Amino acid sequence: MKNGIQALKVCGMTQKEQIRDLIALNVDFIGFIFYERSPRFVLNSLTLADIQSIDHPGKTGVFVNESVEKVSEVAEKAGLAMIQLHGNEDQTYISTLRKQAGHKIKIMKAVRIGLQDAVSKEQRSEEISEQIRAVQNDVDYILFDTDSKGYGGTGKRFEWSLLDSLDIPLPYFLSGGISGDNIGDLDTISHKPFAIDINSKFERTPGDKDLNRIREFVSNIYKTD
User: Fold this and answer.
1) Domain ranges, ordered by start, for the chain
2) Could you report how far apart the first and last alpha carbons of the chain are, in Å?
3) Which residues are catalytic?
4) Gyration radius of the chain over CA positions
5) H/E segment holding residue 17
6) What pTM value is reported for the model?
7) Within 13 A of 41's CA, how many CA atoms are on the CB side?
8) Which residue spans within the chain are E strands per DSSP?
9) pLDDT tens figures, 62-107
10) CATH topology classification for 2-222
């Protein structure tokens, strides 16, 4: 792929036909949101059995401040390959989840970055790096997303240049307002993401993806110059 990207995740999926289209496009990770307050809450549209029946190695469940027991139960019943923690889950929570879920399922922790902050860039960098250090031994990936009261899906982009000032010891996913118009700006980041995570910029309405726009995006990021 271009810009050093190795993988693509499309999040907020709710429709079977669109999921089949993404599988045909060889998308690496397909995200299902299990946060009831999200407009993309997947269980309003699909059952756990529906998700279990989807044959794809990158099924990812997004959870926000859910109990360890509930996350483990949903992950098993939906046949998830990865758990994405997008809330305020701390090191103790993640360690407990890791022991309960085992190592056959991947865990990704989201680090939410605000659009504006009163503190200096150096202080922000240290605070974010501290969050990463606290969980790095029990997770497989970090995801950086734009902070919001709704825990993501803002369509807004944080300051990507901040990433080069961080100590990121794990492969990371980049999310938050990524689109065909700004994907080229990844060239400005020295420490490239392992994967990019797209969502709201590729929707007609929440949970209803614009597949033509996604196809064009996929074509562009795979195209060689």
Assistant:
1) 2-222
2) 11
3) 11, 145
4) 17
5) helix 16-24
6) 0.93
7) 9
8) 7-10, 29-33, 59-63, 82-85, 106-113, 141-146, 172-174, 195-198, 203-205, 208-209
9) 999 999 999 999 999 999 999 999 999 999 999 999 999 888 899 9
10) TIM Barrel (3.20.20)
